[in-house]
């Protein structure tokens, strides 16, 4: 399906046939552009950036590369191709044809899901807005901007749903998505992790590895939705999301590789004085970003999640590939339970445990990248292993929110925690140290000394390609 570029808002949803919707979106567009200029990437708005733009939603057209000024990026509305005769795969409506419109009784729940999803997208752009000034290379700078324009496109995706299906409430929610801001004391973003700062590039790589991965799992669950426009929107978003996690995984891998090189060269693990980020500090960053991302899955026991599932609005990861009844009324699932003294597992109705089921999938997936980082360390002959901390560590939501749990899973008192937290999470001095390494390296072909260059360029381009042309 080709996108109609003659229109102001590129789309494959036949926007031209719906004048009212088109006008509503055209009214929202200048507000969006105002937000982008105020709270999108700082500086670089006049730079030409080698960006991937979707020109259609099929395999041949969704990745077209060329130099573009970011404000001219064609933020559009793309849904994955419809699956003919698709039926609802789970919950009480299992087997019924998917909905093309919102069933009245589920309007409130769906709105909440779409707003929560939509809120995270501009939040991440806001969190990353100052990173351009300290990019470790033009390659990395380009990747940052690619992620930023795509997160902004994901905002467009949710705003389309709000405008097209939720009437006046939807239009109000679309405005509010531009009014809440990451870290704002008065109008913060909805979910915790999206109010945390992303102050340096190691934090950014960890964020794109761990927090974007929550995005993958949440989007995949919404891609199963019985509300077909939401499912198709999320399916297309997932194709873009893969690159974001690639940026995170390879970014951390390059930092680890550089540290290992320095350790071998200098014959010491203390490589900070040689401009490296020591492995225990990388572990502390990992501990922070993993734990705040675990919170994004919600509480272990959640009636909200049960209701979403039963209504057919939000499924499990790869719902259709699972071999069960997809209704889960009689099934149990083992989840962690903490009575304040001990951490145990207990069986609970699977329907209530859906957040934990998704979190379990996420934990297993997160571990795979960590194993690949450890392979680099082992390959360098260094005796150190990065680890995912215990899932109870540093949690604000759910079963572990009211206890203090060490990275290896012991419950400790507040006093013990306070005294030892500097061993587990980056201290302000350590964050300052990492900050001090963040000097821009943006001459063509230049790479900062605290990470290795990537294995290969973007879209078969060389490592010294001019991924960003400054000043336009
Ligand atoms: N922070 O019943 P529960 C992405 C609230 S990331 C603050 O467990 P539920 C991206 C909760 O709202 C993916 N509050 O909640 C990544 C509830 O409040 P009420 C984003 C939280 O609904 C990188 C109460 O606690 N998409 O795309 O089952 C860059 C009880 O909790 C948090 C989605 O999240 C929290 N972390 O689960 C860019 C998908 N967690 O009712 C983008 C849509 C829970 O007591 N959202 N609460 O007032 C959902 O599916 C669900 O809202 C959640 C929460 C899974 C997030």
Structure description:
By secondary structure, the chain is mainly alpha-helical. 46% of the residues lie in helices and 7% in strands. The radius of gyration is 23 Å and the shape is globular. The structure holds benzoyl coenzyme A. Benzoyl coenzyme A binds at residues 113, 116-117, 120-121, 124, 151, 191-192, 211-212, 214-215, 218, 295-299, 302, 304-305, 314, 355, 397.
- The DSSP helix count reads 11
Bound molecules: benzoyl coenzyme A
What is the number of E strands?
A: 7
Oligomer: single chain
The largest beta-sheet arranges its strands as 2-1-7
Q: Helices and strands, in N-to-C order?
A: HEEHHHHHHHEEHEEHHE
Summarize the structure.
With 472 residues, this protein is mainly alpha-helical. It has 11 helices and 7 strands. It has helices at 19-39, 107-127, 138-165, 167-179, 201-222, 228-266, 279-295, 303-311, 354-379, 414-424, 428-437; strands spanning 48-53, 64-69, 332-338, 343-349, 404-405, 411-412, 468-469.
Present the secondary structure layout:
Layout: H1 19-39, E1 48-53, E2 64-69, H2 107-127, H3 138-165, H4 167-179, H5 201-222, H6 228-266, H7 279-295, H8 303-311, E3 332-338, E4 343-349, H9 354-379, E5 404-405, E6 411-412, H10 414-424, H11 428-437, E7 468-469
Antiparallel strand pairs: 1-2, 1-7, 3-4, 5-6
Helix pairs in contact: 1-3, 1-4, 2-3, 2-4, 3-4, 3-6, 5-6, 5-7, 5-9, 6-9
The protein binds benzoyl coenzyme A (BYC).
Benzoyl coenzyme A (BYC) binds at residues 113, 116-117, 120-121, 124, 151, 191-192, 211-212, 214-215, 218, 295-299, 302, 304-305, 314, 355, 397.
